[in-house]
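Q: What would this chain look like folded?
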Amino acid sequence: MARPVPFAFRETVERDLDRLVEKGSLTPVERAGRAASVVTGQKRAGDIRSCADLSYGLNDVLDVQQYPLPTPDELFAKLIGGRKLTTLDLAQAYAQAELDHDSKKLVVINTHKGLFRYNRLAIGVACGLSIF
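A: My prediction, written as structure tokens:
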């Protein structure tokens, strides 16, 4: 069952879903073995972020491998003597990781507009950080 989207956000959520379909991040599907509810939240700038609520179902059965992240002190120590500076934009970072065919079947969201399958790593997948 789709989680209700507040009426004030409905049009914005529909535009966001259309944008994600156009970008190839989502694909509409007619059926799915399982589907998570979509959770929407408003960002500071007023934009809407749609995420899958995978806290039950998929995340319960994932084997999450932990990746040891370095501390800031370790990172700064490695940068000593560095001569180049860069800026990284990680605004849509997870969207860079494409899912394989079998994984796509597991990450489906149920919205007021129907079912959508993620083609790229979705925010909310428990092992997303270690994969990215």
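The helical segments are 7-23, 58-61, 72-79, 101-104, 128-131.
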